[in-house]
Amino acid sequence: MLTRADLAKYPFLNEATDYVKSLGLSIEDIRPEEYGPVLDRAEKRLEEALSKGRITANIADENTEILSFPVSNLILSLTGEERAKRRYALAEAKRAYELLKQESPDKLELIASSAFQWKLRRTNMQFGRRLYDFSIGLTDYLRNAIHLKEPRWKLSNRVLDHGFVLATRDEIARLLEEEVRSKVLDRASRPTASVNVPPFLGQRIEHVRNLTVKYLGTPVHYELPRVPVPEAMPPCVRNLISLLDSGKNVQHMGRFTLAAFLVNIGAEQEEIIRVFKPASDFSERMTRYQVEHIAGQRGGRTKYTCPMCTTLKTHGVCYKPDEICATIRNPLSYYKTQARTLTRGKKTVN
Amino acid sequence: MEQREYGFLMFKEKFMVRHRGFKTAESLLTAARDLAPKHIYYSTAYYQQPTASMEEKGWLGADLVFDIDADHLETPCKTDHDTWKCKACNTTGKGTTPKLCPKCKNDRLDSETWLCEKCLSQAKEETFKLLGILYADFGINPDDIGIFFSGHRGYHVHVYSEGFRFLRDEERREIADYVLGQQVDFQLQGLAETKTRGVTVIEGPQLGEPGWRGRIVSGVYDLLHENGKTGLSDSLKAWDNKRVLEGGSFWSSAKGVGLSTWKDLAVKAVENGSARIDSVVTTDIHRLIRLPGTLNGNTGLLAMQVSERGLEDFDPFTDSIAFEGKLRIHVTEAPSLRIKDSVMGPFNNETVEIPEAAALILLCKHRAEPVGQRKS
User: Fold this and answer.
1) B202 in contact with A, Cβ within 8 Å
2) Cβ-based neighbour number of residue B345 at 10 Å
3) CB–CB contact B188 A152 (8 Å)
4) Residue A146, Cβ density class (10 Å: 0-12 exposed, 13-18 middle, ≥19 buried)
5) pTM of the predicted protein model
């Protein structure tokens, strides 16, 4: 059984959510007069996450700890700061890991199998000098371990026996940390039900917004990527960069075009990834993977070329074609032509 | 069936007719008859709407699929029967097609491969190794596995278990790397040197342990027992398992053999123990793969399911023949080949009447022309 002390340690668990629900409170009820410590702790969670990337794991009061978690989530979503969500999820996950690694095997098992539905078995096996307390179902292992890049997490280096991966107690805690991170991020990314924001929250929301800017910086402004001749880029590509920069959603074809274009004009991989960074759903790992794929360093090893203008017109990627566009059939030719003209011009000036 | 996407590669047109869906076997058969395609594929993935565009299909999961193809095997006979030609500079070569033309660095190369018995039996060997790993390490139930001859140069293994269906590409990559023994770190597998009271002892995995640990040890055992024991040092040639049977550690059972030698052997053991799959196929969660029960347009042979029991004795040149009778063709040049018990060829610019199955292989491989229908 999970105790209330457990819920205070792990307020992201569904059991904790159920407990909060059972209290029948709405956000208007969390008034500063009665719930001052809850509001303070909620804000503190976010402040710690943003400033240090870690949230303290010591628990002053169980109820405060449990209640502050959903309030933190609410404040976070009301700030509308996408960038803060990842950082917050990571900090909550790290906090959980600190606590999880001190738990008994029984408690770990309870949390993993009841809260996260892992297939987890207790074992007592020794291979070489390593003692394994657990074996975890392959899919549960993979879902979390793919985020961990040290060689010891690579499946090839694990003891895999009939669909179960052997793991130590600490490793189970570490894998749970990943599960927590996904869960918190998932929750923070869920659209908030329309709530009337009580006035006493306003100031705290504003504070967190300021902290986000303070620690994560102001969102960078539309800047052309550092490519050989940035001025030679066609209007469609410029438009894609500016759309991404303003946090607007760009469809698959647009993203592909942009990445393929940049790869083909010889932009550095880091530079390409930077262009995608402002996207609201930005995942560095995914972007890196896609870019490497397009650059032919992964998968089918084909270096992709930029789609033709006709294709881009069909997919609504073509944007305000100019007179040079009328003479070319692929954005890459636009770049080549323009780059030649522009660099030639420079030589004359110099 | 209605959740799969189907694709057809035609004889004339060079593109794939895809995003097709069928609710019944009859409608698929009708389409196959109408189109008369060279190859028929279906998706390993399940979709809400298989006929929608890629973004709108609604991915519902995919079978875990492994492809073993002679293209990815390093068989010594390849230099006898496979050739390649660079599309840019016309340089030609024998054996496996390189990624880039060695002369002009172009990446567009044509390859001419041959349907070779040795390559196919090596592919079968790899399939057995794969199945062993899938059962023992991944715990997959044999009832959830389908084994198929591709109709050309290899075998496909499909895993239908729901437990694997929802894995994303990165997770499948881990599985592919595991099967291939990629990035196996011997220290992490327990192979290490330790000093106890001034005596150096080599510790390592033990026979019978699960996963790569056990496979490394049995692989090294095999190397020590191998005929000829080529490349082994004298002390390893003299190795016997006496000391191990007396209760000594396997890794300390050969005098004067150090960690680095054991590691070299372990590398070979992993190489031999892994199954040479094409990881691209396993990783791709939107893959179209050959539909079993159809003819492979590269050979005219039937792509067909093979039971695991039947795999050992499965003979592609007998069991996957779709055409009986004889046919007259003019062969330009081709190595010898066998259909059932009759061996024919090698051929060199001659008109022959041979079993229809053999004739179709030669025709599909562009090594022959039909006689009597030559263009004037």
Assistant:
1) no
2) 18
3) yes
4) buried
5) 0.79
